[in-house]
Design a protein that fits this description.
Elements (H helix, E strand, L loop, with lengths): L1 H16 L12 E7 L4 E9 L5 E9 L2 H14 L4 H16 L8 H4 L15 H16 L4 E2 L6
Parallel strand pairs: 1-4
Antiparallel strand pairs: 1-2, 2-3
Amino acid sequence: MDDLSDLYQDIILSHNKRPRNQGELENATGSAEGYNPLCGDHIHVYVHQDDSGKVDDISFTGKACAICTASTSIMTEAVKGKSREEIDTKAAEALEMLTSKEEPTFDLLEQGDFAALAGVRQFPARIKCATLGWHTLESALKGGEMVNTEKEEG
């Protein structure tokens, strides 16, 4: 189990050091800001949807902790090229994995870096850091309302 935990940590650290899809997206069709006042995470997610509604490009900018940065980087890879329905399913899967009381079972070979998010569950105080990007993506797809982690659960 320690080897698996180490692998999850390595994936998170890799995405934090070298975030994928980072930068402002010039031709975005939607965007939203997300803020976590407890940690200070502040991100902006940009999406470009093609004529069929598929997200053919996504990126993010901001200043955030390692877990928020890594989770958002993993998110961009997980949803790029997906339809809105596929993204909604993936977002629900991520939020369930991060917040469920039951232990998730994921296969790194099947789920790739996405499975590493399960390791965040060991740090309950960091769950909001890991979910901020996902909530911000949902907002970007719905019209761009500001996301604040202190208003999510109320």
